[in-house]
Amino acid sequence: MRTRTLVVLATTLTLLVCAALYGAYGYRPARQSGYRPAYPEHAQFLETPLARFHYVKQGTGSPVVLLSPGASWVYGWRRQLPELAREHTVYVVDLPGQGFTTLKDRGFTWDLDGMTEAIGAFLDAAGIERPALGGLSWSGGWALAYAQRHPGRVAGLLLLAPSGAATRDTWVYEIMKYPVIGELWNNWFYADRSSSLEALKRIHVHQDQVTEEDVDAFWAPGTLDDNLESQYLLERGLDWRETIAAMPRTTTPALVVWGRQDTVNPVGQAREFRRLMPGARVHELDGCGHALTTDCPRQVNRLLADFLTSM
C-alpha cells in the first residue's frame, strides 16, 4: 500500500511538473496579428540594424521624444501628442518589445544596456539632436538611464511615474522574475484579454474612461511574440540600482509627475526623486493612478507644456 501511494504521488508530481513546463515553454497564446488600430493614422517605420522602429511624428519646433509607456505602445500618448505638437516636433516611438517595432538584432539584451542602446539607435537614425526625452513607468526609467549615461544628448526629462527609484516591484511584476512561474503568469495572465481589462482598470482611478478600444489596444499588440517574451525578460534584466546610484549626479532638468493613487509604482517613490534629485520638479496629482497620460490627461498636458516652455 505504501509503495502504491508513493507511485501515485510521484506520478502526480511528474504530471504537474510536465504541465507547468508545457504551460511555460510549450504553450503559446494566440497572436492577435490581425489587429489594426484606428490610431495613429500616420504611423511611420524607421529601419536600423537594431530594429525596425514604429513611431509617429507631429508638429514643428524643438524636438520632444516620448517613449511608449512600459508594456504599451504609441497609443498610450495619444492625448498628449496633438497638444505638445502645437509648439514642438513630437516623436512617439515604440522601443523593442513594444507595439509594432520589430527587433532585428537577436543579440539584444533586455536590460538597461539594451533599452538605452535602442533609444540612441532611434535618435541617431532619426537625426534628432538633444531632445526633451519622456517616458511613463518602465520607459520613464529608460529615459532617466539614457540621460544619466548620455547627459549631452538630452535637453530635459519628462518622467511620469517612472521606474528607477526602487529595486522591487509589486508582486504582480515580481513574480515574473522566477523561471517557469514567470512564463506561466505571462502566458496565462498577460496574454488574456479579460486580464488586460482588469489591469487597465487597476491603473486608472477614472475607470469609466477605459473603453473597449483601449482594452484591445493594450492587449492585442502584447500577444506578439517579442512583446510577450520581453515582459518577463525585462523584469529579470532591469536593475534600477544603477539609476538610483546616479540620481545625485543627474543634472538634466527633470519634471517628475506621480499619481497619488498609483498601484504600480507607489507615490512614495516620487519623494525619493525629490530627495535624491533636488533639482527635479516633482508633482503629485491627487485622484490619479499609474496610467497618468489617460487617467489625468489635462493636468499632465499642462505640466508637460509648462515645463517644456521653461526649458
What can you tell me about this protein's structure?
This protein has 311 residues and is an alpha/beta fold. It has a single domain, classed as Rossmann fold. The chain is 43% helix and 15% strand. It is built from 13 helices and nine strands. Strand 6, helix 4 and strand 7 form a beta-alpha-beta unit. Helix 1 crosses helix 6, helix 3 crosses helix 4 and helix 6 packs across helix 9. The termini are far apart.
CATH homology superfamily? Alpha/Beta hydrolase fold, catalytic domain
Share of residues in strands:
15-25%
Regions with pLDDT < 50 over 5+ consecutive residues? Answer: none
N-to-C order of helices and strands: HEEEHEEHEHEHHHHHHEHEHH
Distance between the termini: 79 Å
Helix content: 40-55%
**Protein structure class:** alpha/beta
Main sheet: strands, sense, barrel: 9 strands, mixed
Using DSSP, what is the number of strands?
9
**CA gyration radius, whole angstroms:** 20 Å
Number of discrete helical segments: 13
Number of domains: 1
Mean pLDDT: 91
CATH class term: Alpha Beta
Named CATH topology = Rossmann fold
* CATH 2nd-level architecture: 3-Layer(aba) Sandwich
- Overall geometric form: globular
